[in-house]
From TrEMBL:
This is Cytochrome C oxidase subunit IV family protein. It is a multi-pass membrane protein. It comes from the Bacteria. The keyword Membrane applies. Keywords: Cell membrane, Membrane, Transmembrane, Transmembrane helix. Its main location: membrane. InterPro entries: Cyt_c_oxidase_su4_prok. The chain crosses the membrane at residues 30-49, 55-76, 88-109. It comes from Macrococcus armenti. It holds the Pfam family COX4_pro.
Length: 115
């Protein structure tokens, strides 16, 4: 009988702990979503305000990068344990994408190096 009471007490404590953890997780997701909507409105406002193109393009790209990081971290649950392989593949893909972009810009800037 005592063992059964301890199990019930343990289950209640575990339930309360998991409930608090899930509530905190949901709160962070809603907050992150609100931040991302705000960043989107900021990007639209900068374009609508007619600011210079030299300022808008890097600023919008920076805001987009922040949103991508937030997407991976919170909505794709990359902060949780067990996602190390997925993180490795994503970082490898980002490395190759950045390398190709830098190479394309370099080749477009200097022209054909074989001439």
């Amino acid at each position: 009988m005592t063992n059964e009471l301890n199990k019930t007490e343990f289950n209640k404590e575990r339930y309360e702990f998991e409930k608090r953890a899930r509530t905190e997780e949901m709160r962070m997701q809603v907050t992150t979503f609100a931040v991302m909507i705000f960043l989107t409105f900021v990007a639209f406002a900068m374009v609508a305000a007619g600011l210079s193109k030299e300022f808008i393009v890097p600023a919008v790209l920076l805001l987009a990068l922040i949103q991508v990081i937030l997407q991976f971290y919170y909505f794709m649950h990359m902060k949780h344990k067990g996602h190390e392989t997925a993180k490795l593949f994503i970082l490898t893909g980002l490395f190759f994408a950045a390398s190709f972009i830098v190479m394309a810009i370099y080749l477009a800037w200097i022209g054909d190096p074989l001439k």
